[in-house]
Amino acid sequence: MKHWIFAGTLSLGALMVATAMAQDAKVLTGKDAYGDWEKDAPGVTRHLVPSDLEAPNLTESASNSPSTVPMPEGAMPKVPDGFKVEMVASGIQNPRAIRFAPNGDLFVGNSEAGNVLVYHFENGAAKPASEGVFAEGLNQPYGVAFYPAGNDPQWVYVAESNGLKRFPYKSGDMKASGAPETLFDNINPDHHWTRDVTFSPDGKTMYYSVGSGSNVGDGTMDPEPKGGVDAWASAHPLGVAWGAEERRAAVLAFDPDGKNERYFATGLRNCAGMTMQRSTGAPWCVVNNVDELGDNVPFEFATSVKDGAFYGWPWYYNGGNPDPRWKDNPRDDLKGKVTVGDMQFQAHSAPLNITFYDNDAWGADYKGDAFVAMHGSWNRGQRTGYKVVHLNFDASGKPDGTYDDFMTGFVIDADSVWGRPVGVAVAPDCALFVSEDGSGTIWRVTKQ
After folding, report:
1. What one-character DSSP code corresponds to residue 218?
2. What share of the chain is helix, strand, coil (3-state, %, to 5)?
């Protein structure tokens, strides 16, 4: 998608016509791209790069958790002109990651309820024809995946906060037909608990994401590992954290049966959502970065996850920017070895899931692009996030760095929100589905 660069400040007057400006595809860059819920509108486009970062602690770290209120009567998310949004379901306790089975059934990780829900649709309707509980008695289920790929998967994989289970499955099952197989259950569920799972295109590798157990290793890591940093570094892959953070802040790789665990990538504070990019065969994830460095530091990001790469946590962020809380950084040897995420997002947006739009239905401006659900954070004075954004990719499958607001309208005022987007998924009929756990709803977006 082509854009114009918008160099001015978004004034109150400009705010009144933000949506109209967005249709002209102008891009906010640098500090002009620092928005908030009042400036967010479908089509507003931003481009941030690591050099746009402020110094840490220029603003005081805010504690600004939203008051989550019931969805007001008649409320509807806002989407760009030419699109239609419809409610699919409501009254769900805690709908998080959402995934479509090949037959078009929607699976929902209903995390705090401890179950996985399934919705069956007929004839392209927005409302499900039937629904059920596929599995229950789970530990904060989040990510869901179907294996093997194709139209006849044999298993449904469910990522729990402490491990991974798989259930026997045949197309159309609304309830698991047999007991689950526990592939592993030895993951520490404390702090960041959202686990996700996806598979390589050839089906030989399973990726499982594990968030950190802390903000920046505080309370979970000693200044140095036992035996010293040199010995630790020589015995572990690049950037592996120690103490209670070992096997965390990482994407782990396994065989599909849960065996042969290895580190795939490290330094990812909380890779809360993963997917595969069909055009390149690369896994992607969205990452919640560290808190308490000020309103605009550091940037969150989405990235292709590279085998053996180190993304900085807990010692660095957005490249070789050192976290000042590590006053005597024990891993200064890693400064020049940090892989920078592909797409930078405004600080404290809290991206939680990503999906690629690999269809022709919405035209060339969307085919091959991605959508990211932003949950919003407690750690920003003027809140942002609480929306779904559209990431622009070029013909080669690489992001061009820009992203635009696609679904907004979940914030009522400076204190109250009714919706917090979590999951995004593309249905076989090419509609985009979005879950949010503020009011417990699921939405469907189609192009008119």
Report:
1. T
2. 10, 35, 55
- 393 exposed, middle or buried (CB, 10 Å; 0-12, 13-18, 19+)? buried
Q: Are 426 and 359 in contact (CB under 8 A)?
A: yes
Q: Residue 341 in contact with residue 360, Cβ under 8 Å?
A: no
For 370, the enclosing helix (H) or strand (E) is: strand 369-374
Calpha distance 396→178 (Å, rounded): 43
Specify the pLDDT at position 12: 36
Element (H, E) at 323: none
Strand 432-436 to 421-426 pairing: antiparallel
By CB atoms closer than 10 A (0-12, 13-18, 19+), residue 202 is exposed
Q: C-alpha dihedral over 354, 358, 360, 364, to 10 degrees?
A: 70
pLDDT at 7 over 50: no
Q: What is the number of H-type helices and E-type strands within the chain?
A: 3, 31
- Specify the DSSP element, H or E, that contains 365: none
- State the average pLDDT over residues 340-365: 98
For residue 14, give both structure tokens: 């400009």
Neighbours of 252 (CB within 10 A): 19
3 state DSSP class of 125? coil
Burial (CB count <10 Å: 0-12, 13-18, 19+), residue 100: buried
* % of the chain with per-residue pLDDT over 90: 94
Radius of gyration over every alpha carbon of the chain, rounded to an integer in angstroms: 21
The CATH architecture of the domain made up of 58-447 is 6 Propeller (2.120)
Q: Look at the block and give the residue holding tokens 């572990």.
A: 236
Kindly state the tokens that stand for 443: 């939405």
Structure tokens at 125: 């309707």
- Between CA 23 and CA 31, with CA 28 as vertex, the angle to 5 degrees is 155
**What's the rounded Cα separation, in Å, for the pair 302 and 124?**
31
Q: CA triplet 42, 47, 52: central angle to 5 degrees? A: 135
How buried is residue 69: exposed, middle or buried, by Cβ count under 10 Å (0-12/13-18/19+)?
Answer: middle
Residues 97-123 have a mean pLDDT of 98
- β-pairing, 26-29 vs 262-266, is unpaired
